[in-house]
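Appendix B, record 7
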Amino acid sequence: EFDFMAHDSAFKDRYLKLQNVRVRFIPTEKKDIRDIWVPLEEVMLYRFWSNIDRYAAPNQRLTIYDMPEKTVNEKYYYSFEYVLTSPNYSSASFATIAIGNGRYYTLIVGADERRWRRYRDQLKVVADSFRLLGI
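Structure tokens (predicted):
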């Protein structure tokens, strides 16, 4: 049993307890992620940081790496890697965001810093596999 506040669905690795996948979605009238996310690093950083309180403690510092846009079946996605660092703890994650079916989706897959170094490539496969279905 575990609780991930502010997420609609979450899966935790049963053996590596600090690895997890979380999905959050909220209603939106926007039709495309490009309507609210401009592919400029400063803008994306500001928008993600302004909502970071859902994902991080107040004393954590955010570092974002590489923010590519991709298109799959005429749907647009932004994905990026980020690290949250505090004096005693550090975690890393991939976030994939998209809009479809009247919802704004955020998928986050992450692990603590030690496990991240070992499992990063496998966790990236999970983040890159996120797709919206046309329902």
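Remarks on this record: Strands lie at 9-12, 20-27, 61-65, 69-72, 75-85, 90-100, 103-112. DSSP finds two helices and seven strands in the chain.
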